[in-house]
Design a protein that fits this description.
103 residues, mainly alpha, SMc04008-like fold
Length: 103
């Protein structure tokens, strides 16, 4: 496979993941973190870092809007539920496996 085809396939897969996460608003970020060690905010940080590597100016809020499909504050008020004690405990216990430690 040539590099351009690989890039196009990877980009399509990423767009599919983002579309799926936009559709699954019932899945909380803390659940993603506890199960997989990353969440929508992590994806946003990866998007922001990739933009910076390519000389594109993008702040964290802009990157989150790319992932969430709306301003983060809107998504949070519409879809984010309070974390349970069990979720918070699991989050703290798994922090060494998180993609980013600054959540």
């Amino acid at each position: 496979m040539d590099d351009q085809t690989r890039l196009e396939i990877e980009a399509a897969a990423f767009r599919g993941l983002v579309a799926h996460l936009r559709h699954r608003t019932d899945v909380q970020n803390i659940d993603l973190m506890n199960l997989a060690g990353f969440c929508r905010n992590c994806l946003s940080k990866w998007v922001m870092a990739a933009a910076k590597e390519r000389g594109v100016s993008m702040d964290y809020d802009q990157a989150r809007e790319e992932v969430y499909g709306m301003p983060y504050s809107d998504w949070k008020s519409k879809y984010q539920a309070p974390a349970t004690e069990e979720q918070l405990t699991a989050f703290k216990e798994g922090v060494d496996l998180h993609a980013f430690k600054d959540h």
